[in-house]
Each structure stands twice: as C-alpha cells, then as structure tokens.
Amino acid sequence: MMGRKHEVKPFEDAAHLEKFCETNDASLFILGNHTKKRPQNLTIGRLYNSKVLDMVELGIESMKSMTEFPNKGNFGLGLKPVIIFQGERFEYSDEYIKIRNLLADLFRLQDSERFDITQTKKIMVFTVLGEKAISLRCFTSNLPSAYEVSEDPEPSNGQVVSKEPLVEIGPSVRFIVRRTYLSSEDAFKESLKKPKVIEKQKKKKDNIEHNELGQVLGRLHVQQQDLSTLVLKHVKPIKKKKIDTTAIKRPKEVEEPVSDEDA
Fold first, then answer.
1. Residues 212-249: tens digit of each pLDDT
2. Given its phi and psi angles, is residue 8 left (phi above 0), alpha (psi -120 to 50 degrees) or beta?
3. What's the chain's Rg over C-alpha atoms?
4. Can you list the residues of the chain whose pLDDT is less than 50?
5. Largest CA distance in the chain
C-alpha cells in the first residue's frame, strides 16, 4: 500500500484497511495481491462512515491488455465511460445487484441524464458468464463513420453500407467471483441517505450554494486592486562605479639599442 509491503487481509480483519482509507479520505479501494491459494487476486470495496460496506474478491483467469489490440484508443484523463451490464444475474440476483452497483460506483465519475452517442469514446461491458464468471470488454464508438453511402454506379446506388459501430480496444479480462462481503438492506439504505440541509440554509442567497453533503460553498468577488498603492520593499538602485584611470599601471617604454649602421 502506497509503495510499501503490508499484509492486509480485508476479509479476516479490515481495521488496518479502514484506517488507511480514512487517513487518505478514500471511500473506494482496490487491493491487489497474489498468493498460492488465491493467485492474481483483486479485492474491490467501498466504505461508509469509515467502515467497510461492500467487498468483492475477483480472481483474474485470463487477460488481454490494450497493447495486444490493433485498435488502440487515445483517451484523456477524466473521460466518462458508458457502462453496460449484461446478464440476468445483474437483474435478479441480490449478490450480483450489489456487485453491479459497486462496479458502477468505481468507474463512474458523475451522473448524466443525456449524452451524445456519436461522441462516446469508451464503452465498458460487464457480462455474466456462468455461475461465478464475469467478463470485462472495452470498446470505442465508431458511429460517426459507421454508415456510408455507396458510390457504386449500379442500380444499388444510394444503398447504406454498414460497418462495425463498436471497435474493441481492450483491455479484456475474465474474472472469477471468489468471495463477497455485502451489506445488509438496512445498512445499504442508510448509506443512500443524503444529509438534510437546515431550512434557514435552503433560502437562496447570492453566491452561496450547498452541495450534496449539506456543506456551504461560497463565491467571493474581489474588486480590481490599485497597484499604484501597493507597498513594496524599497531596493536601492545600483550605481555605476567610476573607474580611477590614474591607478591603472601602464607598461614601461623600453628603449631599443641603436646599431652603428643606423647611426
């Protein structure tokens, strides 16, 4: 953790992990480890009131990285992906409903009511395979150029030719669900509650807002400052020093001897 070796077993004792998350103000965590009993192991979890709310332990059976795909996506930091869950277990199984909600909390940035599908850069698809297997595949949208008009002069002129609207870019991972620690219905409902804002604070005031946690956010407008009245440290200007020419030593003149011929 944070570049140091710590023996953390969240399913046996989560106290150290809870303290570490509280210190770093983190409500979500991913713990990766590798042992002989559980190789290639990932533990994904979330906290509420500095206590573990839900955890799922996933084992990596197979993986294909982004470098192994011919089409590589170029994504910026903070890109919001489209998350799709496929499979009846995500709809009817209480265990997989919590896993779906946990994965959505992990990868989503903020809720959006509308989005342009033609501008979608990344699509993450989680699919249930069998009883304990979940696959993850990542795609990019090719919709702006997915449909082109054929220029063939035959009678089929104007026929729409379809291309692949989604292109897989990776990574592609197959997980096995090993262990889960899921919250009770009462604890889960308690975590969904939003703090009530005091009625006095609900009255709208200029440049004052409230976030989802009920905290007050203010905006301060400062007038332009007159820099002519700004008090700065006085620095004496550097004066040029006069050079004393009399102190400069001149080379002595040496008299050359005159020969008889010159004389």
1. 666 778 888 778 877 777 777 777 777 777 766 665 66
2. beta
3. 35
4. 145-153, 155-162, 198
5. 128
The C-alpha atoms of residue 95 and residue 181 are separated, in whole angstroms, by 9
Q: How far apart are CA 169 and CA 69, in angstroms?
A: 6
In this prediction, residue 73 carries a pLDDT of: 64
Bridge partners of 124, per DSSP, are 83, 138
Phi-psi region of 87 (alpha: psi -120 to 50; beta: other; left: phi over 0): left
Q: Residue by residue, what is the 3-state secondary structure of the chain? A: CCCCCCCCCCCCCCHHHHHHHHHCCCCEEEEEECCCCCCCEEEEEEEECCEEEEEEEEEEEEEECHHHCCCCCCCCCCCCCEEEEECCHHHHCHHHHHHHHHHHHHHCCCCCCCCCHHHCCCEEEEEEECCCEEEEEEEEECHHHCEEECCCCCCCCCCEEECCCEEECCCEEEEEEEEEECCCHHHHHHHHCCCCCCHHHHCCECCEEECCCCCEEECCCCCCCCHHHCCCCCCCCCCCCCCCHHHCCCCCCCCCCCCCCCC
- Read off the tokens for 136: 């993850």
